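Journal club prep — side note

Before the paper discussion, L.F. wants everyone to see what a predicted structure for a comparable chain looks like in token form. Sequence:
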Amino acid sequence: MSRLYLAFVFAMITIPGMTQSMLGKYLEFAQLQYDKGDYFYALKYYDRAMQLDSSSVDIIWKYAKTQRAYKNYKKAEFYYGKVYQKEEAKIYPSSLLNYGLMQKQNGKYSEALSTFKKAKKKYYKQKKSYLYQKAKKEVESTAWAKSSKIDTAEFVFEQLPTTVNTQNSEFGHAIINDQFLFSSLRADSISASEEVYSTNYHTTLYKSKIEDTSFRASERIEALYKKKLNTGNGSFSLDSSRFYFSRCTDNGFQYTCKIMVAQYSNKQWTYIDSLGEIINEKGANTTMPCIAALNGKEVLIFASDRQDTEGGLDLFYSPIRNGNQYGKVRAIKTINSMDNELTPWWDAKENRLYFSSSWHNGFGGYDVFYSEFTTKFNTPINAGLPINSPANDLYYFKNKKTGYVSSNRIGVLYSTTPTCCSDIFSLKPPVAPVPQTPEETLEELNKRLPVTLYFHNDRPNPKSWEKTTTVNYMDSYNKYSDMIETYKTEYAKGMSGTRANEAGEDIESFFIEYVDQGVRDLELFQKLLINELDKGAKINITIKGFASPLAKTDYNVNLTKRRIASLVNYMRACDEGRFEHYIDGTATNGGKVIFSQVPFGEYTANQETSDNPNDVQNSVYSRAAARERKIEIQSVTYFKEDNKSSIVTKKSIKDFGISKQGELLSYEFIVTNSSENTITIDSRIPCACTTAEIQDKTLQPGASTIVKMTVDTKNLSGIVMKSIYLQVQDSKEELQLYISSEVKE
């Protein structure tokens, strides 16, 4: 999109009777400029129209659309919100979806998630439509963004100098022979003060010589320039003898491109020609060439809206033979989506295809993704922060150890709107990475928490009193996910129309936001965890269990223990058993992980959740019940082998079942000193309703004592859970003991 620094004067005509006539002219001219792609110019006339009539939903809609096209996300968000407030997506169905997209591009993930959920319900009657499918995807994507925004890779992130970046838009492509190749969208004629004499803007390829890490003044590549046409993108053949690029005509700024090839030798481009119709399909927009080596063979990867695309621009590839013969074109189906996939770049070292998309899980707008190539292109993975941002991030490529990305994030050079245009940024590894202290590493691990994992009712091992299981959590998750349609059907029983559809949407959103997100969080957490264990760290992971209140409390305690065991089983098996020797304590580097279990059963369950076994609609298949059946990785701490748990007990929870309000509930826990040292213990009691008596506070190695815990239920009611903490003197160690009961008045 252009930056049009146009100088023009509006006639201030306010003669009575002329307002409506001028309003029509402003709107007509604004639409004309919008259709041409002159969004800056269009906004000037829409501004004038808004001054004459700011209540018309039609004018506000056009104003919002133009602000979005000009990449003024803040104003676009505001005016899309105004449109939706006025017409509730009845006149402009996409107003709600666009409102959410702009919230997301402004980094307002919680607000955006709420809007997308509302949009998903709004569009449920057209489930095959783009609006519904996009809203559904954005619920998942925004939930992902909320949990992933804390993950920032270690890079020195810098904006390239003004010898490359300008107040126009720049996009990086490649480095060859110390020449940085990029394209820039600039006016054909600009004065020294950047006043535009010609309103024609074209994208053109430039180069900047790199000397001692400095970028020299950029020069247009004259051999590739063609007047009144646009040139951009660029990729060299594997032997660097050919250069592929795009040449485009435009209607306004709606490009129609073909892929060109030039011979390259002695820093010169010659014999420029377009590729044939195998690649440049007639009537299609074919652009953004990228050369890769797949299974040892040279292929051309490109973006196109040719026939049979998933939507917009998709990515395709074609084998190259003898330098100028192209085989059958194939779509990259594991990458392509209903939105655009574009700016491909092949990383030969990592065997990865990088590209940008606005569909897959991202931070907003276009994000950079990569797909590992094995025998096929695998599921896309977000390249993460700071490569990506809530703005548009495109044209990622890497030279040696430095990556480059083109972005219109806050901080770019601009004349009118802070996010209107793109600059090129570099991402360099730190010169001397500062090793993290144990405290900093621990903080990073705990940032990922809680990791919450969900289960179907009475799973794993239904109708069992066992405290352990051989089930792997990932198997449990897959079976649970396969039940989504059953959940939707069962929960909506007896409902009809809008109410039934909303019930189904609630269940589907639960699986996307919670069940699936839990697995994604777990995968990110385990990557951080293995890094620390590989350094020899000894790590204690505290896992808390929950259950819906359908079964008896003591049964649920064992059930949550099985659920925790299923997670440990998964950790043993994942990454081809990388965690197993750390779990067993047999790692040669001394690294070790232990799992501290807090199986709360139903004690902290939502007391409004149905516990009626005859009401499976609400006690099993409702969103409320499903949210209670979970375990949480709640905290991560370090431990030393010689500071392992000093005080232990075989039973840490006593459930009294039903009790009468006013009863004193007392239980004697046996606590043992498992260390080789004499210790002194004391208690910390959170609630005034609870007391603790310790028979012997000083314990010799191997000795035991009785701790009598009493709960006064005088002012308690419902299901209650009270605890005390036993503390070891001169240590941070604590042992938590619990009494639970359902107190009835």
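L.F.'s comment for the group: The first helix runs from residue 19 to 36. Keep this in mind when we get to the figures.
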